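Field reference: sequence -> structure
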Amino acid sequence: MPLFQPASIAVFGVGPSETTFAGRAYQALSRFHFTGDLYAINPNHQEVYGRRCYGSIGEIPRSVDLAIVATQAQHVLAIVEECAAAGVKSILVHSAGFNEVGDSGAQMQMDLSRLSDETGIRILGPNCLGFYNLDVATNPVVATPSSLVERLNTDTVGDVSFITQSGGMGSGAVGEAARVGITFRHFIHTGNEADITVADCLGYLSGVSAVNVVCLFLEQVRQPAIFAESIHQLRRSGKDVIAVVAGSSQAGARATKSHTGAIAGDGAVVTSYLRQLGVVVVEDLDEMLDAAVLAQARLRASGPRVGILTASGGAGAVLADLLVERRLDVPSLGETTKERLARVLPDFGESQNPVDLTGQILAQPGTLAGAAEAMLESTDVDSVVVVLGVLDMHASRWAEDIRWLASQHSKPITVCWLGALPSTLEVLREHGVPVFTSLARVARSMDILGALASAREAPLVRPAQPGGLSVDPALLVWRGEYAAKELLKDAGIAVPRGHLVHDAADAKSIALDIGYPVVAKIHDPTQLHKSDIGGVRVDIRDADELESHVNELLALQSDASEGPVEILIEQYSRLSTELIVGAWNDAAFGPVLMVGSGGVFTEAATDHQVAVLPVTSGEIRAMLRRLHIYPVLKGIRGIPPVDMDELVDVISRFSVLATTALENGISEMEINPLGVSKDGGVVALDVLLVQGAGRVPGSMIGE
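Structure field:
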């Protein structure tokens, strides 16, 4: 792409001042020794920085691969037209004042997109900080006016590249990367994406053999299908992709919109979509850089079991707690491993996990290597963390020992060195050993190792919609809970036995048939949340109690509804857990599935996961594992475990049914609660269909 590997560059608006965007961009290209042809364009000057200054792009005697524009927004369209006429291949627009400022700016950006389409000229920006490309050592291209260039060390360029939709966060990441020993091979800020998008940049990097890791800071995903194919291109070439997603909360989404002028999608949906594509999604820039360190090292952990070696029992205990909080395992060690450790540990050392080497390693510095080798060769753990403190006396030896052990073993070894000397960190990093300076970051790194493994195993082709379920679209009309449950039954999803009645006598007859205890609910298609008006009575144990409740519900419904007065009598299910499963049409991604903690407090809960449909059984299991309620589903404190195969099957069947519904006039569908009974079975206790394109306020998480 001529944009990122230009042989000739023209910069518009360059003048004597080095404080302007144009002047700083021109100087950055010179400072980093761009060896191609570099031209300045300004009709008000004949010479700048000792070089000829041209009055227009048309005066330049040869073709130009890249034009850099940092003028006022109202002049940009004319300059693009001038460049197109002169045969310029690509343009970088630093100028702000487009989509992010309102209707007039949005119109100019639409015109900019139209010009790109009509002329074939590629445009990066507007409102763009630019890029740098250090991939070609003989001709680096640093096309950015940002002060981030002050942090670049071109002698330590690695195999990690970075694409960002936020200039400020992007330039900050460059500075922070230097702290952990990373110099990005590429930095690309896509700005407002009038033409070139993140997907285009991903496609370019997929062809760069020296890049093994691509980091992203995303505020939205445009054209998901094209984006997905670009991710797949990267992964097919063996590259890891790591992303931070902004705007996952309502407040975050508002901030994203005010910053970029884009209508940000639901960050939770974007996060899920990325995971389904095989992207490692992390929480912030620190975690992104830690993940990049691990991906660079190409570490592979075969499981969640972590072995800890520490010179401080307190540090080992804290790290163990942090790992368990992240659902990692700090297992007990087997006798074989303990016997081997006993041969190298001092008598007062601890051969359990965490393994306390004690301060005796100062007197016997070889203890660390012996204990680490025992753990690396143990079948009891999948990865090893070494925790050290300010022990400068033997720091060089220990760094060399760890480096050598890492080179001899495929099992990951990671270091947390509190208060380490910079030279010690450098030795380890130069040899690809991940080293961190806080317990929290090394705990996160162990979590990231699992995420990297899952991402590398993600399918490169999205699954097809499962077959075997046929639904008559005529039935996809909200006629109340009873009719909707008939749809669920046809789809193979269990519902309570029940029937509609019109009076207490009918109710008692039905209750005798299905057996007490029972549930009584008003049945009114206009009342989407019956509990809110007291329209649900549960655990009714005899006929007298049932008659009283039914009469109250009939009176309640006759006051609230103009339709027929009906009551739904159902079998009462004793539950151990309540879930919610729902689906809706996302404006960008289409049908989306949500699974979470259910019941009457659904709207107040934050325990939910989403996925873009269709989904595999494996993806459903992964969604369930990420729920806070997952340990309850596995069985805890007398609560029996759910039949996980049955639960996954029910959610899969629901997803197929919901996809058909969403394609045929339904805007939302949900089961809440999806109950897990005391015997571990799964039953849909309440179901809702929402007709048409509009959403019912508060009916789903994420309102």
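Note: The mean pLDDT is 88.
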